[in-house]
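Issue 218. Parser rejects a valid record. Input:
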Amino acid sequence: AGEALGRAVAQLYITRARTDRAGSAAGNATIWQQFETDAINRNETPWISLESPRRPPMLPLFGKVRGFFIDSTTMINLRPAPPPSVHSAQFKTELAEVLHFSKNATREQIRIAHFWADGVGTYTPPGHWNAIAAEAFVPKRFSEIRWARNMALLNIAMFEGAINCWDTKYTYFNPRPSQIDPAIKSVTGVPNFPAYTSGHSTFSAAAATVLTYLLPEQANNWNAMAKEASLSRLYGAIHYRSDCEVGLQCGNRVGSFAVARGRADGAN
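Output the parser choked on:
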């Protein structure tokens, strides 16, 4: 009976996944070109792939995927304001800061950049936060039911953080620092998608928000880790400061929906 119930519940999620639009998130060449055209029409510099040969952008339509706690209309309303224009004084200041870290990062800053890199072939930022959460949960001796709920809230928050972040990235199609200034060399490589906002920052803040709800006595630790993960992308010369700071804000907002769901689910 238990196996049958488990399979039945799993089938509900499989059926949902088949219609959540993730399967079409890669888009096509016409869509990719439209992002570039839209940026040019806004008098901005569009993002381009820095790989050789150039590759298609990663999952440009992931921002249209259906979430669990946040509907599509609300997700659009959570989209942040545009990044600083490439023609603005703020942009030039932020670009100079990235160049500074590219040339002058301290040994500790480089260590932080590598610690949070979580690139392709690793457990990536969501997996990193799962490992962090698991290490914190074990001493609490949670039941299997609590574990399942905790991990569901954590991972749905990061999943919806991804939707928010990817919606933002492809709405604004903002160039990476090293695209604007080739003198900028990143510590860990440059991801093949636009800069604003930082995915690491969004994932980390969403995770920290949920973990603060689940283990409030460690709130300062979660927030410090999220901030360090965010800054790691500036230290690594991968993101501008505004990518990181706004990404943290977005992650906090998205994570709050998971917290609200947790507070209303009757488990406490």
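Fixed in the parser; the record now loads. The domain at 22-264 is CATH 1.10.606.20 (Vanadium-containing Chloroperoxidase; domain 2).
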